[in-house]
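For practice. Any example?
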Amino acid sequence: EIHERLVGSEMCIRDRLSEYPMPWGPGRTLLDMILHRGKINWVVARILGYESFEKEMGYDEKEAEWCKKNKSALWQGMLDNGHLDATDPLIVRSYIRKDPFIPIMTGERTPASIGVWMGILLIDEYMKTHDDVTINDLLNDTDYRRILSEVDFKP
């Protein structure tokens, strides 16, 4: 059943990503990528009724625990290192790709696509404080800098 849900989740995410593609162009940042992917995954988690965002991401218990334990340090590291504004593909990929070993946490093994998971948390916080925003509004909104500015995010 878990495998079927993950396959369903992946298919649903791919469908949403093709329906709401990431706007391409110069200056696309890590923030743009994690919030774009985060909103898609947030919607999929709602549609498929996942009990946690970690489960929607396919994380096992150990990875979910890592996320809970390290989310503040991960976020602070992203801020301190200026990674949210990064356009360098190597930095962006280190947060987005499914490779679970990225050098952003002092060489520690991190769950795959950890930036997408962080994006889901940001979108969740945004949606909790914006009752007037529909899912359709969210999916069509690409002003990620404004979304971040309207969230008091303290993981």
User: Anything to note?
Assistant: Helices lie at 2-19, 30-48, 53-56, 61-80, 89-96, 114-128, 135-140, 144-149.
